[in-house]
Structure formats: structure tokens, C-alpha cells
């Protein structure tokens, strides 16, 4: 599955390595009920990789609201933290990590550092990654390339030698903008075609 020119693997976290997207969506649904904004699970899923605060900014703009992003994100994240112990890595992705354990690996996520570290610690995935780039580490988030470019830099790898695993179109745009090949992960399984 891994092309010969790829010397490092970069992974999105939520929805790619770990089945956390249902937890995020349930948390957004709770925040929507509390703050009275429209909830659309498919729309929110498509924004995977975008930091929560920016999602609230988009909701404000598209729904013509004036929600306080800090308050909405606090409620959403508090609920997410209560659900987090139920999160599990996708078995197919664990098998992939094991198969390619000889290659350098990094996480490139739109989650906050605190949330990413909790997910990695609670699932045991922290042992697999020496480099974790989060929303707190870049100014320009996905679909901009910065998250993946910084991950490659920290691994000491050229962008063209990195392969990204992503589950959303926004994440794929970020990988492509970084000049990296990308394999999509659907339902916790990497798609078998060449990137």
C-alpha cells in the first residue's frame, strides 16, 4: 500500500486513527441544543480537521448568530471529555501502524493539544508517535498545508516523501496543498487504491 517514494507516514487523528467522530458529533449536538443553533451531522463531519472555535465562527456567519465561541467550545469540549473513555482506535489502522512500524510517523490534527494528548493517552497510541502537531501549533489550519508541513519538518522529512492518511476532504486538501500523497480512510479502513 505504501509507495516506495514515501519515507514517513502522517496521520490525522479523529476519524482516521481513532473512532472519535461520533463523540465529537454527539458533543456538537448537545452544544446545539444548549445554544440554539442548527445541528447538521454531515456538515460537521465534513469540517473534520477544523478547530472547534473556527467551526463556531462559521456557524455564526452561516446561521447569522452571535454565539460566544469560547462558551460554545467549552460546553462542547466538556461533553466530549465525558465520552472520551469510550474511544477506540480502528483495528485496521492499528494493523497498518504495526506493519509499517519501521517508518517515521507523526500526527497532524485539528484538535487542541489537550484533546489530542488525551485521545492518544487513553487509546495507547501515544507510544507510536514522537511528533504530534495540533491546532495550537499552527496559525493556518486545514485545509491549509501548515499542519502537515510542520509535521514533516519535525520528522526531518521532505514533503514529497510523506504519505498522509485522512478521513475528510478538508484534510485531503491540506495534504495535497503540502505536496504530499494522501490515502483516504473510510469507516476506519484505508482505501486500497494508490494515492
UniProtKB/TrEMBL annotation:
Family: Belongs to the HAD-like hydrolase superfamily. CbbY/CbbZ/Gph/YieH family.
Record's protein name: Beta-phosphoglucomutase family hydrolase
Top-level taxon of origin: Bacteria
InterPro entries cross-referenced by the UniProt entry: B-phosphoglucomutase_hydrolase, HAD-like_sf, HAD-like_SPP, HAD-SF_hydro_IA, HAD_2, HAD_sf, PGP-like_dom2
GO molecular function: sugar-phosphatase activity
Pfam family, one: HAD_2
Protein keywords: Hydrolase
Record bears the keyword Hydrolase: yes
